[in-house]
Amino acid sequence: MIIVLILLKQTNASDHPEQCPFGYELIVFRLEHLENRVSQLFEKLESIVAENQLATDERMENLSANVTRILDLLEEVERSGAIVNHQNRLDKSDETTAVENNNASTITTCRDAPSTGIFQLAIPGLSSSAPVPVLCGVTLFQGSWLVIQQRVDGAVDFNRNWTEYRTGFGPMAGFGEFWLGLELISQITAGGGYELLVELKSETGEYGWARYGRFAVDGEASKYQLGELGEYSGTMGDSLANSGGMKFTTVDSDNDNWSRNCAQHYMGGWWYNSCVFNNLNGLFTPKPNEYGIHWNGWTKAATYSRMMIRRK
């Protein structure tokens, strides 16, 4: 009888959980434990996702950097190949042959020129002005360059006055020495968007180049002031930066920062600052221990010089 009563009491207790607090608390404890485990798993999952995202971002950054390096290397290889080919042509004197004269062909930029030669350039924005002859080069650095200065043998005297530097001098044809003229250079670059390429051959026969991402020259009222130059690249060093913002000086128009006239001393018009940092219009064969066609830190007496501009 006693055993039956005990069994009945246990059965009644299981039918009413509120009368069995220990079992209820056990269930709650297990649920809380499960909730904590789920929370920990979520935190761990979030940590793994964050770590993977960080690793992915780092891989993407590394990949982007590698692609940039590859593109830079490809560009450098392309430039080096162009330089080697061009230097070989200079060494073989291939470019000393007569330049083709295409006076019948009118262009608005040297990008329109089908070959290296002299073309009639119609300057944008100057519809009333007649086309002017210019020398276009289509080989080096993807071509389409307009030559504004060339020195090859010293046959032309570059120790000129203001008027001559303004209007230009020297023959373009036949791979001659010439200066295009400050007024034309100013008009051509007035609209902006031009870059500059300088080529030199040192007194030891080494070929070098310098390229600037921006090039412009103001008008005569500003003494043909050279605008600030763009980003530099090249093999000779950034010597021309010293001339950025400088006015043009000739033997009869002193606009430099020296107490005397740099053009009189170094015998050639240029955008002098304090004279000797650079000058591509100096004496072709300088006096002993003096400067000629000069690019600071690279050459004091270059035997070849060419300045070219191109619309980007």
TrEMBL record:
Coiled coil residues, start to end: 31-80
Pfam families linked to this entry: Fibrinogen_C
Signal peptide positions on this chain: none
Entry's Gene Ontology cellular component terms: extracellular space
UniProt keyword annotations, A-Z: Coiled coil
Domain Fibrinogen C-terminal: 101-312
Descriptive protein name: Putative ficolin-3
Species in which this protein is naturally found: Culex tarsalis
Lineage, uppermost ranks: Eukaryota, Metazoa, Ecdysozoa, Arthropoda, Hexapoda
